[in-house]
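Repro:
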Amino acid sequence: MNNNIVILGGGESGVGAALLAKQQGYDVFLSDGSSLKEVYRNELQAAGIDFEENGHTDKKILNADEVMKSPGIPEKNEMVKKIRSKGIQIISEIELAYRFKGNSKIIAITGSNGKTTTSAMTFHICKTAGLDCALVGNIGYSFARQIAVDPKPLYIAEISSFQLDDIKTFRPDVAVLTNITEDHLDRYDYKFENYIRSKFRITMNQTADDYFIYCLDDEVTMKYLNQFNIQSNQLPISMKKELPNGAFIKDGDMYMRTGNEYTNMSVFDFTLKGIHNQYNTMAACIASSTMVLRKEKIREAVTTFHSLEHRMEPVATIRGVEFINDSKATNVNSTWYALESMDKPTILILGGVDKGNDYSLMLELVKEKVKAIICLGTDNKKIHEVFGNIISPIVNAGSALEAVHAAFHFAQKGDVVLLSPACASFDLFKNYEDRGNQFKKAVRDL
């Protein structure tokens, strides 16, 4: 066994990995280029794990048998380049966690949009059906921490492409790919195909005993599906075609089959509204039903699930103006889906750190539904260029408070103010949660 492991990055996934590796008898050293959060520093000290912050010591790192790299650290990072050139194996946190999962099962969910909602709903269905499970990965605890602290027979893991980039043996019993749209291209040499291949790695180690759930209506997924040697049982979902296996929606009813039994239920019973959420619900129902649950339990769970914070979250209605927090929309497609589900005139709060966005994809929907745009970012030039000819007013705001006040000024009774930025948040905020929370506070203070 490679006993000497270095953990690069001291956030949730890095510290979780360090705790698990230490518990499993590795010699662990954690290194972070910036400063650690106090809570993580305390945890490392309590566990007797050697660490450094605000810089990397080459000698210690390049002496590792193996390096676990946090998903936020890109390949172009100088330290990563040095590790690669020495030929030291780099793994991701989910790969480390997988080694020590025992006989537990994994439902792993990836995709450009909808993966958080699908993961949370899958977890809700499994919990409602009485399974002892944990929701891990990008939501809540890191996968490695959960295994170290409170192992479960079933893990529902939300997984990003960055985490899939460095897997070797990771093999989920059930893999879900919600869809693929252009995102994070700055991390993939601006080549969409690199990002697509990264997403499909979720099926890489699957066997004929496993399941792969994907969207038959997603053009990118279907274009690339046959380029990969997928061994698992395929369970597609669709709204355009009736399917013998998987799930489809027809005339307001969802039909699904994973084995010999058919189940159906009305989409009007789904608590989550909007077409994109019908896809998320189908994916969650199929993923859960591979665990052989009672049909009534799936039905009950789908009718009791509540949407997540910062994802199409209703905040308040003030003087007839409805405010919705969709801060988690960090790419154009997420915002497209949000607009698509709007049925009232909308004032859209848009902008932040642009990851190579193509806003023209939103032109038709913006024309149809949006009456004003508030730009919430430090550089809004691109938004003005794309929408300037079709929307007036477009105004800039330097804070969530300013954005909310500007939006309220342009709104009339019966309108919706939608925060759905299509961008990352770290120009004005710590993260999308901080952006959403500041938005909610500003709305409540109106």
